[in-house]
Fold this sequence. Notes:
Chains A, B: Keywords: DNA-binding, Transcription, Transcription regulation. Two copies of one chain form a homodimer. With about 210 residues, the first copy, chain A, is mostly helical.
Amino acid sequence: MAAAPVTDPPARTGRGGRPRDPSRDDVIRAAILRLLGEVGYGALTMDAVAAEAGVGKATIYRRWRTKQDLVIDTVSELNRAWTLDADTGSLEGDLRQLVHRMVEMMASPVGAATRSLLAAMQHEPALIDAFREGPMAIWRRAFAEMWARAQARGEVGPGMTQSIPAEAATALFVQRWLVTREPVDAAYADAVLERVVLPLVRQETAGSRAG
Amino acid sequence: MAAAPVTDPPARTGRGGRPRDPSRDDVIRAAILRLLGEVGYGALTMDAVAAEAGVGKATIYRRWRTKQDLVIDTVSELNRAWTLDADTGSLEGDLRQLVHRMVEMMASPVGAATRSLLAAMQHEPALIDAFREGPMAIWRRAFAEMWARAQARGEVGPGMTQSIPAEAATALFVQRWLVTREPVDAAYADAVLERVVLPLVRQETAGSRAG
């Protein structure tokens, strides 16, 4: 992991429901990112976030009701930045870009914070649904939209997005990131694409054309 | 995960270095299994293990120097039971059996304890190496021996065991088990074998024969 360059995520675009003071939001998000990496979700408190961000606790509570809301929203928003503008015009281009972005995210402080949340899920069942509807949904949607674009271009059949082979597009990275801790870098991303993901896509496409 | 039947692991065989009182060892292991599932690695103490197992702390310290030794040894030994006698006579038979055993382990209390250790790794770097040399090495060795047998039978080329496609034999299960929490059961195991693992093995074999 040390070998992977930590690149800046692409600039975030605006969206509805954006708070009035985005710069203060960014300061709070940066504080959470540091605290999750350092102490983890369990030991993170609203007091520590307020102190680390240099804002009053009332400022935080005005926008987020609970620690879980605050952390899930922050980690989701930070992950979202890596998934924007993913349309390159071809499935192979889209896959390559999304997988490289995911690998960069994993090696970044956002990856450490996301992994910290995944660890906390083990003993806080309420986090499982929150993670699924937050950070995980961000990546699911990015991949689902990629498969939908590929289907519209005639590159894959309609069953790809929910298919088991589609799970392979992320699974090998997740396994190294969470279990084996072997390098997850750009070279590994390319190797997984060439030897696992693209062959499985070709096989599924051939199968759906033959069927 | 609830749908997966929790079957008993195969009986353990003896090995060198076995303690004099294996039944007491088993009681201590069962206590750790319960505590890891309930409170997690961080909150587990030698006192709690001794109380839960109904043995004196001296008994535990005679055999294990530290909490880390005790927990890693226990989780390794419990995982080992699922990997024994894996030779079925063919690669497809071996793969099917190992993958089904892994899926049963994930749905069992041993799986919950293993996942608890993986979560603890996030904030205890010393656990990363211990996990790699303990529970992870058990499964790595079982899969490596499976690829070696397949190579000896002429079913795959020599490069399979360390290959990236070989990582797919476990990665999809790990992703559901640790991240998406979608069902990991026997039907899923068969589907992953048919649509991901066996096609990749055939592709690698064809490639190594052509090359």
